[in-house]
Amino acid sequence: MPGHEAQEAVRRRRFWRIAGAGAAFQGGSAAVDSATVVASLTHMLTGSALVVGYASAVLRLGWLLPQLPVGYLAERAKRRMPFYVFGAFGRAAAAGAIALLLWWGADWPQVDWPPEPLAAGFLALWTVYACISGVVAVPYNDIVGRAIPSSRRSRMLAWRFFGGGLLAIAAAGALRLALEVMPPLQAYAFMFALGSALMFLSSALFVSAGEPPSSPGRRPAARNGGAADFLREGLVTFRQNRAFRLFLIFHWLGSATLMALPFYIVAARESGIGLAGVGTLLAAQTAGALVSNPLWGRIGDGMGKLPLLWCVTFIRLLAPALMLALLAAGAGILGFAALYLVIGAMMNGVTISYLSFLMEISPDDRRPAYSAWFNTFAAPAALSPLLGAILASLIATPAVFATAITAALAQFAVLKQLDRLAGEAEP
Question: Where are the transmembrane segments (predicted)?
């Protein structure tokens, strides 16, 4: 009995430290949010829709591209925590380097601002940040999958986003205040410094939670082949595992809905929302994420992972539809704040549902491989913001939102197939 109590104490400690690490990272990522902070900064530096699209696309592409090599190496390693340490502390350092660059750039003579070397330097460091971040995904999914039982994962993620939402609201207030009292570049430098500090805290908390022992059922054969064999096995899994294949298609379509994400702030700025209003919109986004957390956790753990996907897909459809309505009505800051409440709920739901469902369909002994294969096959879809930038440049910004609505409708068709597959699997 005492041994059982000790094990339960270890599980509780891991639960709350992993949730706390996620909350700190959520607050840090809000401070450098790609949909508001980075999109606004990039638009201010360059005025180019294509560059705004690149900044969003490279974050998602950089997250996905390292998955295959990291998954291949992690399957052959006894411990996955060293991979997490490299990626988590590395991205925190990259965010700190961006803060230093922007602070230095604020000293450039106003007549020459914005200098091209500053914009190029920021985009280069942002690309480094994105690629290092991608190393985290495989070890994080595997460690969390072993440390947190399936029945508590959605709840843990909901607590993560609840605590992260509180920190993100504080970050939004800091952004608005900084933009009011500091020169713009110094304000953005301050936000990246804040994000870096929170990411270092997140990394330390996650490492302190420890790594559970690997499943004794791991197959040694999975570690014997070369990289080509590992990729070939992933292609076989794609062909033979229908749930895996359908979820990948669903994710591709989801990337098409998220192509609009950096252009919500561009459309708001074009509609007359000032630079200080970016802080208000970030606060609304984080508030939407915060209040939606209990709902996502209850649906995911209480009703199941598929009902969670259905609900999130509806929100994916609602956000661009609401954006088109606001543009048609010539809405002001209150209307856009309401939209960003929806966006915040959508983004939290997307993350929780994606992680929960991918862990659900991944065998315990192959979770690093499944995570690597899935994210590698999904990587080309990360370029969708560039397609959005082309649509915005050649047609108009509303065309991006119309395309996102079409993709969300197609997601419903894929969900029907996943529902049927789940029904066939039931005894």
Answer: 44-63, 83-106, 118-140, 161-179, 185-209, 246-267, 273-296, 308-331, 337-358, 370-392, 398-415
Count of beta carbons in the 10 Å neighbourhood of residue 11: 15
User: Helix count (H) and strand count (E) of the chain?
Assistant: 18, 0
| Per-residue pLDDT, 128 | 94
Q: In the Cβ-directed half-sphere of 289, how many Cα atoms lie within 13 Å? A: 31
Give the type of residue at 154.
Answer: S
The pLDDT value recorded for residue 412 is 92
- Tell the residue number behind the tokens 């054969």, with chain if given: 221
Which percentage of the chain shows pLDDT scores above 70?
A: 88
Alpha-carbon distances, residue 98 vs 94, 122, 123, 188, 203 (angstroms): 6, 6, 9, 9, 19
Most confidently predicted of 145-149, 171-175, 374-378, 400-404: 400-404
Q: What is the largest CA-CA distance in the chain?
A: 73
Q: CA 180, CA 199: separation in Å to the nearest integer?
A: 25
Lowest-confidence pick of 216-225, 352-361, 373-382, 388-397: 216-225
Cβ(42)–Cβ(55) below 8 Å: yes
Q: Which helix (H) or strand (E) holds 332?
A: none
CB burial string 386-418: b at 16+ within 10 A, e below: bbbbebbeeeebbbbbbbbbebbebbeebbeeb
Residue partners of 423: CB distance under 8 A and separation at least 6: none
CA separation, residue 384 to residues 93, 160, 165, 246, 409 (Å): 27, 28, 27, 19, 17
CA neighbor of 18 nearest in space, from 144, 149, 158 = 144
Look at residue 220 and tell me whether its pLDDT is greater than 50.
no
Q: Distance between CA 154 and CA 157 in Å, rounded?
A: 5
